[in-house]
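Re: folding output
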Amino acid sequence: MFFGKDPDTDEDHCPTVWVDRENADLAFQGWRADDETEKECPEVGPIPDTEAVIRIPARMVAQIRKACDAAERSAAELH
């Protein structure tokens, strides 16, 4: 289920957050992380080919909180 787009970017290139209706997982669309961030992330473990480091703007925190709350409620309903 769609939850929100970054309110400060255009309609075609927006970081976005969803909650999966089937399993309550969060899904994010974001900007690719910059080189410095990409270099720092593997310090805590490898990044598999099936994963990516993305950047979500802090101005989306309220939307992400709402999505987290919805995911938590959905997950509780699944169990």
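--- second protein (sequence, then structure) ---
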Amino acid sequence: MIEVSGKGGQIQFDGEYVTVSRKGFIARTTHGKGEKRLHVSQISAVQWKPAGPLVNGFIQFTVPGGIERRGQFGSQSMNAAQDENSVMFTKKQQPEFEKLRAAIDAAITAQHGPQLLTAAPSSLADELAKLAQLRDQGVLSSEEFERQKAKLLGH
């Protein structure tokens, strides 16, 4: 489980679901209290803007049929701050958000990728090796690895 806190929102990722929750005064005044849960199969894109010395960065999830706000130069961060599928972060918080982004990208690729990336189906051993590599890189926790391994093995 990966959990990160940003400006006005928190994100949890368990390997299958991304949960964006809003707690605290700032979050309630901009988005309202509550949470939104997205399965990785629902996420069609992850928009990323790194934090700079003077501006916050953000991570934004695009879902089919969603109406996220696209900003012109200079207004991306302001629009993302108002989007329900976005969470802002500071330069100090960015490394944790980068880990989250990598884990979500890996999960999206695992969900959609094998059919798109390879002409021939990969073997069970190849899939297990990929999962082990993600675990060894710190993208998947041991629990997430075991859960995905069990799914592959049909348990």
